[in-house]
């Protein structure tokens, strides 16, 4: 087993950029055992105990049109202690397939959030997703807890918002509206029974500023 003494600062800085590469033997592994006493990520090849920050991760979900993107844009001004990222920025640039419930795409975002978190600031990740897409990912082990918040609204408002979007977003098609309404209803019915459960926030009667403040408060209560 490798030394459990704190690594030099310059070594930790390098590890933050390539967290899955062992700084001692150079081997790559995602599925390292976690020793909570450090915490340490244990290299399966040489046993090196890699000290790291095991922070919580905050997932902001909901159907398209509910206000996630707007909240994601405005949240950083209120939540300086976190890094806010929109998972849609890599959609289309990175392979994301439904065959495994988009788990590869979610795992990639967990890897990004894990490395960003080594700076000492937890990540708030916005995007349409459900807990099972993250909880089974290999990178999940590097976070202390994953907290899920689902934004929803009434069906009429959601449909109206989707139809008002520019044509290039293809949000107003009958197929997309039907899909988003189904997901909106699914969240209302099942958020309390997912594992872990999702907190539900109805934005129908909330302004964007009110929603942003309540999302920031929800995060801070769990930090």
From TrEMBL:
Xref: SUPFAM superfamilies: P-loop containing nucleoside triphosphate hydrolases
Keywords: Kinase, Transferase
UniProt GO molecular function: kinase activity
Protein name per the record: Nucleoside kinase
Organism placement in taxonomy: Bacteria, Bacillati, Chloroflexota, Ktedonobacteria, Ktedonobacterales
